[in-house]
Specification:
With 106 residues, this protein is mainly alpha-helical. It contains 3 helices and no strands. Helix 1 packs antiparallel against helix 2 and helix 2 runs antiparallel to helix 3. The longest helix is centred in the last third of the chain and has 32 residues.
Length: 106
């Protein structure tokens, strides 16, 4: 039963990472890209690590994988925020193709 749960968690985590990569390629500006990637990657990596935790067992890898999950959840959103802030301050935050067409440019 734990193998099924671990496989499901890992599969869902990989699916979220694929969705994040599609969002990175398709979204128009750095702020949208950073938002999509930070949310999906944080949860995706966490689910993959939870799946590995279920497979390996709590006594073998519990502390290491728990710390890895905590580290990912603490650093990915901060890095995304800093990249978005740099894009905003650098003037890259708005979609240049949609300028002058009203809100959202569409």
């Amino acid at each position: 039963m734990t193998e099924v749960a671990a496989g499901a968690a890992m599969l869902l985590g990989v699916a979220l990472l694929v969705i994040a990569s599609i969002g990175l390629l398709r979204l128009p500006d750095p702020l949208c890209r950073a938002h999509a990637v930070a949310k999906a990657v944080s949860l995706g990596i966490s689910l993959i690590l939870v799946g590995a935790w279920l497979v390996l067992g709590a006594e073998e890898a519990g502390l290491k994988l728990g710390l890895a999950i905590g580290f990912q959840l603490a650093t990915i959103p901060v890095a995304s925020h800093l990249l978005s802030r740099a894009a905003y301050r650098g003037g890259l935050a708005r979609d240049r193709a949609g300028e002058g067409k009203g809100r959202g440019g569409r």
